[in-house]
Amino acid sequence: MTAKILDGKKIAQDYRAKLKKEVAVMKAQTFTPNLTVVLVGNDGASLSYVTSKKKAAEAIGMSSDIIKLEENTSEEEVLKIIRGLNENPQVHGILVQVPLPEQINESHILEEIAPEKDVDGFSPINIGRLYAGVETFIPCTPLGIMELLKHADINLTGKEIAVIGRSHIVGQPVAKLLTDSDATVTLLHSKSKFLKDTLKRSDVIISAVGKPGLVTVEDVKPGAVVIDVGNTVVDGKLRGDVDYEAVKEVAGAITPVPGGVGPMTITMVLNNTLIAAQRLVEKQKN
Amino acid sequence: MTAKILDGKKIAQDYRAKLKKEVAVMKAQTFTPNLTVVLVGNDGASLSYVTSKKKAAEAIGMSSDIIKLEENTSEEEVLKIIRGLNENPQVHGILVQVPLPEQINESHILEEIAPEKDVDGFSPINIGRLYAGVETFIPCTPLGIMELLKHADINLTGKEIAVIGRSHIVGQPVAKLLTDSDATVTLLHSKSKFLKDTLKRSDVIISAVGKPGLVTVEDVKPGAVVIDVGNTVVDGKLRGDVDYEAVKEVAGAITPVPGGVGPMTITMVLNNTLIAAQRLVEKQKN
């Protein structure tokens, strides 16, 4: 059996086409949703990320701005800029690109973003709302993974799921979303002793480690769904955690790298920005 | 082999003796830590809980107040009272007893409590800080469980742990703390298909369901540590989730019900209140 390929590029394209229609309706009726990205410093990879977010927002009809700050910008200055964006009614989604330079405390910055504009869902109050079951923004990579799973023809209720990687950006929140979907989740990490046994009995494997070759064909139960969040550059090429070529011969469904989870993450930033703008419209109505 | 009994009553007593000494030092040097509990309505069980919290606080030298409000108090009124407590420098810990009457939205109330006085650790911003790895108050039952485990003579690194129950009050945060302690956690719940298999291979079982008889002697690996958070009244007696009499003959360590997790929860409320007061002293110094 060859796995169904979960083509993130295509799924993201279809999803963005749907968002584009909603943005057009919103622009006709009210205003243009705006995503503003704050970038501190001159990291090349970071600049390329924020540029692609801006382009993606504009491609679906949103407006998007990049606020580029010098490497040596003080924390207080960044906080002041965020306060300005919080108060600006023409800005609906705010992203601060990480990592930040050493002089800036990341959690201070994230706590300053107004919860209703925190489209990454990384501010503590929004993370807390997620766990408390209150309206929030779901972090983009976990949300993108959930969207991909909808295309994997699997009912999550009662399924055994192995999540590898315990970061609060991917592993932990996706474990939370999967638990909410009635799956039974085991959260694995570098100190786990029976990683291979756990993978072998799992109906779904989600690997978010950044270690090419971690998940081999021997680890995968025939028919299992494999989502690869790994994202490592090896010899100039992007590689996931999963031995894709071999695993796709036994899995029921699998994401490629690149073109799997990656395109979904940016799509969900756009999704959350639209939601932020729509919530503002609702609020203005009341 | 008969299990080591994790005597929560005794462990809590020792812990409170330690807190009492720290409170005495604080009173001599600065001020008396205060825990204020807000109770809305006339639920008998709730009144008994808040009274025992007040008594426990006073027993270790803290001051404690109960603000008793009518059943029909409006949400706005409760919010106003919380704002007053937030601003009152003589109040260091604030608890709002749940459940609240229907007209009051619990999450609105919890979000209003100043994070630095939220000693239950239930406000979204504090839950979020827990997941983001930022200074916070750890919810009291999970914190009490971690303290009990210190007495179980087990090194958590790499251990397989089954947590039963996915509430955001116990199951989810204790899973998070255990993952942080390098254990491999499987979070089980009512929709889990292989609950018994998972229990049987686990080094630690934490059951927080409220279903007497859920964990039987057949489910427990010899030598495993069993923490029973169950708390169900059956024929006037408090019962846990675990078949205690049989399981204690095979487990390595086990908590009784009553006298296991229960006494630890209130102890951790006191612990967090002292921390809140200490953080205020530190803040005033700077």
What does this structure look like?
The structure is a homodimer of 286-residue chains. Chain A has 286 residues and is α/β, with parallel strands linked by helices. The first copy, chain A, has two domains: 29-115, Leucine Dehydrogenase, chain A, domain 1 (Rossmann fold); 140-262, Rossmann fold, CATH 3.40.50.720. The first copy, chain A, has ten helices and eleven strands. In chain A, the strands form three sheets. Chain A has a six-stranded parallel β-sheet. Chain A has a three-stranded parallel β-sheet with strand order 3-2-4, with helices on both faces. The longest helix of chain A is centred in the last third of the chain and has 25 residues, at 261-285. The first copy, chain A, is globular, with a radius of gyration of 19 Å. The relative contact order of chain A is 0.17. Chains A and B meet through α4, α5, α7 and β6 of A and α4, α5, α7 and β6 of B. β6 of chain A pairs antiparallel with β6 of chain B.
Task: Walk me through the topology.
2 copies of one chain form a homodimer.
Chain A lengths: L3 E2 L2 H22 L4 E7 L3 H16 L3 E7 L5 H13 L5 E4 L9 H7 L11 H9 L7 H11 L9 E5 L6 H10 L3 E5 L6 H6 L3 E4 L17 E4 L3 E3 L2 E3 L4 H4 L5 E2 L6 H25 L1
Parallel strand pairs in A: 1-11, 2-3, 2-4, 5-6, 5-7, 7-8, 8-11
Antiparallel strand pairs in A: 9-10
Helix pairs in contact in A: 1-10, 2-10, 6-7, 6-10
